[in-house]
Amino acid sequence: MLRPLQETFREEEYPNLLVGLGSPDDAAVYQIGEEQALIFTTDFITPIVDDPYAYGAIAAANAMSDIYAMGGQVVLALCIAAFPPKLPAAVIRDILRGAAEKVAEAGGVIAGGHTVDDNEPKFGLAVMGTVHPSRIGKKRGAQPGDQLLLTKRLGVGIITTAAKGGVADPAHLEAAIQSMLQLNRRAAELIQQVTFHAVTDITGFALLGHAFEMASQSRARFRFFLNRLPFVPGAVEYARQWLFPGGACNNQRGYGPHVTFDGLTDEMQMLLFTPETSGGLLVALSPTEADRLEALCLQAGQSVWRVGEVVDGEGVEVLASLHR
């Protein structure tokens, strides 16, 4: 949708624009000095949980995730809200309070925003962060021989869909909420301590969609192993019941032609196309640096899983196991 803007804003005319319309990265980056660049992004979502505080906090964590995917830290945010006129003031306060406390946890500040009337609630943030110009996280750069590491479990999208249908186990929903509330801040800080080649966050296009974006930008092929992929409790169970959201079908139609499977059931294939909210970071780096990152994560108490590898070729493949 933004492609027509490239005719107006030709990147060669803006030398300080380090990441813009010319690449499908997670946020824009603009250099303001030799040691500093600004990251700018925006995201908003409809309610995925009933609790307004949790909704606001998850929406904020989801919006800030792009800053972390680009290797930066959060500085400033503005609220973007669309609320029904009859929505109780107490509900709006809880949504804003959840977002505010999550931004404060990130070390940033909310300094304003804009609200419009709408029949369906929508909430998110426009977020600014900072990063060193030489340490920007981008989708391109993965190399054959790299290892693929993931910092959060998958499956929150099917859990929240099951919850909307009234069939989710409360324990499963709570585990999914806690995963979505977890910031990618610490994971991004640890990735900055190693030499990485490419990174993105896993959100609406699911693991396979975002992996394909990285693979295509890197002109390489991503290979995942199902037995190494981590899932939140209940995700596989609800997949077997075929409780997928509509977004999973959209992702399958859009990215399915670029993905091959070996040894996966239909429901496990679809689960990997299911959208995530406030998902983890997927990073490609050499085996030596992958070992270093795993050690740093273990020391810091940060979850991380080695889920695949980068090989010659194009597209994405998923094997049932490493030894298949």
Give structural notes.
The chain is α+β, with helices and mostly antiparallel strands and 324 residues long. It folds into two domains: 3-134, PurM-like, N-terminal domain (60s Ribosomal Protein L30, Chain: A); 137-319, Phosphoribosyl-aminoimidazole Synthetase, Chain A, domain 2. The protein is 35% helix and 26% strand. The protein is built from ten helices and 13 strands. The chain has helices at 52-69, 89-105, 156-164, 170-181, 185-191, 206-218, 235-240, 246-255, 266-271, 287-300, and strands spanning 17-19, 28-33, 36-45, 73-83, 109-117, 122-131, 147-150, 198-201, 221-225, 259-262, 281-285, 305-311, 315-319. Strands 8-11-7-12-9-13-10 form a seven-stranded mixed sheet, sandwiched between helices. Strands 1-2-3-6-4-5 form a six-stranded mixed sheet. The N and C termini lie far apart (41 Å). The model has no long low-confidence stretch (mean pLDDT 95).
SSE order and pairing:
Elements: E1 17-19, E2 28-33, E3 36-45, H1 52-69, E4 73-83, H2 89-105, E5 109-117, E6 122-131, E7 147-150, H3 156-164, H4 170-181, H5 185-191, E8 198-201, H6 206-218, E9 221-225, H7 235-240, H8 246-255, E10 259-262, H9 266-271, E11 281-285, H10 287-300, E12 305-311, E13 315-319
Parallel strand pairs: 4-5, 9-13, 10-13
Antiparallel strand pairs: 1-2, 2-3, 3-6, 4-6, 7-11, 7-12, 8-11, 9-12
Helix pairs in contact: 1-2, 3-4, 5-10, 6-8
